[in-house]
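---------- Forwarded message ----------

FYI, see the Oxidoreductase record below. Original note from H. follows.
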Amino acid sequence: MDQFVNNITHTYPDLDCVFLNAGVQSRMILAEPANVKLSDFHSEVATNFLSFVDLTVKFLPFLMNKKTETSVIYTGSNLAIVPAASLPRYSASKAAFNTFVLCLRDQLRSSSVKVIELSPPVVQTELHNYMGESGQQLGMPVDAFTDEAYKALASGSDQIIIGAIGPTDTFNEIIDKRRAAFENLAKMMRGEK
């Protein structure tokens, strides 16, 4: 990983944004513990969460040392907020990552690095191949998602939610209240009012 980051930053010294997108997903039936492979759980968490953390820590010195504004953009998931019962590995890894992003964004609030999280709904990608042919037809078409994501990124928002799980108003209210509670706690932890 060090070699990869070193190669990228030396090959592209004008780099001002790193966009990290990774995801694997499969069902896991916790009610059948004899069939649960913990190594699969660890692997999915490593891909969906730990790889993002590792790459962030490796790219941050480069981004923070730039004299211009930089950003790091991540693909999260709406399942970080409302988990899918049949996808505990994926949901937990994306929830952990969402928490990491909130903390990183707050810790970098006075820096020139903007932290952006893009949280998609179910999108028609190979992520759902484990479901067979029906999985590839599940969710929003990629081109429609890409159009919405681009518009939202261009708006300058640091938290982009596309779609909703359940009623849109309720889902967005959960996200807004959670972020407000997080920001209030962060200020309190810094001794601010």
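H. also flagged this: The beta strands are 17-20, 70-75, 113-119, 159-161.
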